[in-house]
Amino acid sequence: MRSIYKDKEVRTIIVKLSLINLNNKEFKIGPLTSVPLKSFENEVKIQTDIFNKTIDHLDPICPSIVYSNHYNSSISSDKNKLLKKILYIIRDKVKHQVLLHKLISDIMSKLSQNKKENIHSFGLIGMEMMDDYTTLYKVNNSYKDVYELIARLRLIELAVKTGYTHSDYHQGNILVSPNMSGYYGSKIGHVILIDFGYTKKIPDEILDAIRKMYEENNFYGILDVFYNEDALSNTFPNSSDTYSFSEYPDLYSWIMPSENLMKSMNDEMLLLKNAYIEYEKKVEKVSLGNKALFSYGKVEEKKEEVEEKKYVDVIPPVEEHVKQVQVKPIQVKPNEANPVQVKQYVFEGKRKEISPAIGGKSKQTKRKNKQSKHKQTKRKNKQTKRK
After folding, report:
1. Burial class of 174 by CB neighbour count within 10 A (0 to 12, 13 to 18, 19+)
2. Are residues 118 and 73 in the same domain?
3. Tell me: the pLDDT tens digits for 263-311?
4. Chain centre to alpha carbon of residue 17
5. Whether residue 334 sits in one domain with residue 270
6. Residue 303 in domain
7. Where do the DSSP E strands lie in 143-298?
8. What is this structure's pTM?
9. How far is CA 34 from CA 31, 40, 165, 182, 215, in A?
10. Separation CA 275–CA 153 (nearest Å)
11. Count of CB atoms situated within 10 Å of the CB of 85
């Protein structure tokens, strides 16, 4: 589920297909350019990290990765068979999309031609996705301005909450749901980010400045950093050369409003920010009685609290002649060598053990009872002899 307001299961998977060069030599198939294997693996790690850092309020900034792997033609394995099967399925699903169908066919052909050299490979990333999302690029209605405001806020949240800059925020990498509500007050719509192939960590000094501007609600200032800061510039694939986003206004300029709209945009984003804070409070209120459901890090902590409480509250019966002595319970967990629950108490400063499995009697009490029975038996024997 992606929302406490929508009782809707995730039944759709988005698959990202990447060309991978295994010898660091770039190659192209159709419009796709290959990337090194390390870049593919870093993208998987980064997206997983972002998801984990933003799941607290049931609204992660990106989809969860459910599968990722790369093809290696130099070995025969079940992994390769699965990857090929997935690729065949995708090709069959996109028959009506001529260019995409041809691209996948070309990739499969290239793999078979270069089997011995093992220089061409591909990677797949499978992500969960709800059905009614589309790219911001394809949206063409009166609500697009609202979706762009939400998208700007999500890019800012990405930086503030995780320390990453997306670095490739063209509108094809921003997915919009026009039907989801409950996140931004009366505004209907929801946004998630995909494609973290260029994502990188923001330098600490710049990140501190961004977080300070976020506290001061200076959203325009943050967006200006994203768009114009040289340290956040994008890097060409397989190259150390960088380029500023302002060099490609057709792709990235949507993030920066014109100067005459600067104040109104900032005011509208403040309303969205405050509405989202209210959403987070609602989630926290719902989760108040069971924090473990909403925070991965607190699950074990919650279990530990329950276990400790069990040892304190469940106290076995104490012998009548011992009840007059001050009893102080000590929290002790079952011994690995003795799985029976053992409670330890302090009797007049000395520690004794009482086990529920043996009737709740201490060792000293059992010894006294044994001695008492022995004396009684001897006494009876003497009386019998006298008779």
Report:
1. buried
2. yes
3. 999 999 999 999 999 999 998 887 765 554 444 333 333 344 444 433 3
4. 22
5. no
6. no
7. 164-165, 174-177, 190-193, 200-201, 234-235, 242-243
8. 0.71
9. 10, 10, 22, 40, 40
10. 12
11. 10
